[in-house]
Design a protein that fits this description.
Helix content is about 55%, strand content about 15%. With about 425 residues, the protein is an alpha/beta fold. The chain folds into 3 domains: about 1-200; about 215-305, Elongation Factor Tu (Ef-tu), domain 3 (Beta Barrel); about 310-430, 3-Layer(aba) Sandwich (Rossmann fold), CATH 3.40.50.80. The strands form 2 sheets. A 6-stranded antiparallel sheet has the order 4-3-6-1-2-5. The chain has a 5-stranded parallel sheet with strand order 9-8-7-10-11, with helices on both faces. Helix 5 crosses helix 7. The longest helix is centred in the N-terminal third of the chain and has 33 residues, at about 70-100. It is elongated, with a radius of gyration of 26 Å. The relative contact order is 0.08. The model has no long low-confidence stretch (mean pLDDT about 90). The structure holds flavin-adenine dinucleotide (FAD).
Length: about 425
């Protein structure tokens, strides 16, 4: 499926390039400003196509989420972004340059003339500004300085930016002038994508939450700074969710309404209850400890491919550190009865092991193996040597890892060193 998506996206790009190049001719290229204008047209078409692909990747298309996984889709979205923004920027610069050469005007006079004579270009300029704002705030160093919500709101404005830029594409783009079929194709593509996003990101969640009517049932402390939140609702039985998946959670209480954050279920649904277990690291996650029973809860999901559906072996090793135990705990419950299970939990102190008793009893019921590695990072390291000792047949296992980034990377590297094939190593990251 991953290959198929990549091939489809690439085929679309080739088609767009062919379409853009088909309107170029020797005479136009040879005239004043011909080359910059041609570059401007090709970069516009390909850049906006890439923007469309980026939007589709985060549109929460259910089949795409199920087969590729949200974290990978977000990684792709991020990997494409610099190309898309660079191409659109190249378009802006080369079109201004091209027309100023063609009409023998200064670049600034040309820009002014565009703004005052072409309202579509004025709104496209505003759209371009919004796009640049999203791009700059997504640069790692800038993003680390701002709250997630600020970054998210700025990102939301890119939808407005894309909308503002659309009309100038079809009304002033040479590839569209006199080509009604190209206009129809491009309009269907963009409007279709916009409607799909409205439907999937607004319509579906609103309808589902109306059915679920979730409310906070209780909040329980599990470990220092870690709380389990149980919510209750209706029609939970109808939720098609696998152990290891996560939802986006929004709590309808003062100050939290604007926050929507991902948390994995820490147990399979027990209708009418759902449970998540959350470590307080920032505004929203810390506020969960103080939620009052009865608070209305709004969820989006389930998302994620960190589930037993990814297994291809009968032997399964589950490795967790810290609050990374949540999807592992739910998956342990959901694995097929025939799976041979090994569970390895990493924590600094015994009291930091979240849901330890539940994990032990689930492993015992499956006659599996359970290890707790306790101690500081310097004392206890889950390297290839330790992993090989704990699970001698590790190469014949599917291995699922969830924990802090450094820990996860270390375990993944250890598993690979011990001969676990790439396709059998699965990991979940708690940051996108
Ligand atoms: C797929 C997934 C599953 C997760 N499951 C759990 C879980 O079961 N239990 C748990 O305690 N934590 C989980 N997390 C982490 C949790 O989402 C963050 O700790 C939480 O969002 C922090 O929000 P905050 O407002 O408290 O802190 P902030 O200060 O806003 O954020 C702290 C950091 O968390 C990350 N983050 C914040 N919001 C989001 C978001 N909406 N999407 C992606 N990353 C974000 C950012 O990297 C940010 O730097 C999960 C994360 C992901 C991506």
């Amino acid at each position: 499926m991953v290959r198929l998506c990549q091939v489809a996206a690439l085929a679309g790009l080739v088609m767009v390039l062919v379409l853009a190049l088909s309107v170029e001719g020797h005479a136009a290229l040879a005239s004043a400003g011909g080359w910059p204008l041609a570059i401007g047209r090709v970069s516009a078409f390909s850049g906006s196509y890439l923007l469309l692909v980026m939007v589709i990747l985060t549109a929460r298309l259910p089949w795409l989420e199920r087969s590729v996984g949200q974290d990978r889709l977000v990684r792709w979205h991020r990997a494409i972004a610099p190309y898309a923004v660079s191409l659109v920027s190249l378009h802006v610069l080369s079109v201004i340059l091209g027309y100023s050469q063609m009409l023998h005007r200064s670049v600034f006079t040309m820009l002014w003339s565009f703004w005052v004579n072409y309202p579509d270009i004025l709104s496209a300029t505003v759209g371009f500004g919004l796009l640049l704002m999203a791009a700059f705030t997504s640069i790692r160093i800038a993003r680390s300085q701002m709250k997630y919500e600020t970054w998210w709101v700025v990102h939301l404005y890119t939808y407005l930016g894309l909308g503002l830029a659309f009309m100038h594409q079809i009304r002033t783009g040479v590839m569209f002038l006199g080509h009604p079929h190209t206009i129809q194709f491009w309009t269907v593509l963009w409007v279709g994508t916009g409607l799909t996003i409205l439907f999937l990101r607004l319509g579906v969640p609103l309808v589902r939450n109306q059915q679920y009517r979730l409310r906070v049932a209780s909040v329980t402390q599990e470990a220092p700074n870690v709380y389990s939140l149980t919510v209750t609702g209706k029609n939970i039985k109808k939720m098609a969710v696998s152990g290891g998946q996560f939802f986006q959670w929004r709590f309808m209480s003062k100050g939290l309404f604007w926050h929507s954050h991902p948390y994995s279920l820490s147990a399979l649904p027990r209708p009418p209850f759902l449970r998540v277990t959350v470590k307080g690291v920032g505004d929203q996650s810390s506020a969960i400890a103080h939620l009052k029973p009865g608070t209305r809860v709004f969820v989006e999901g389930p998302y994620g491919v960190f589930t037993h559906h990814a297994t291809s072996m009968n032997n399964v090793t589950l490795v967790a550190a810290g609050v990374g135990i949540t999807p592992i705990r739910a998956m342990l419950e959901d694995l097929p009865a025939a799976s041979n299970v090994t569970v390895i939990i990493r924590a600094t102190r015994p009291e930091d092991v979240v849901h330890g008793a539940e994990m032990r009893s689930l492993v015992t019921a499956r006659e599996g193996r359970y290890f707790e590695l306790l101690g500081s990072r310097d004392e206890v390291n889950l390297d290839a040597h330790t992993l090989g000792q704990l699970v001698p047949d590790i190469a014949a296992n599917d291995i699922f890892v969830c924990g802090p980034a450094g820990f996860t990377e270390g375990v993944v590297a250890a598993a690979r060193r011990l001969g676990v094939p790439h396709a059998h190593v699965h990991h979940e990251s708690f940051t996108f």
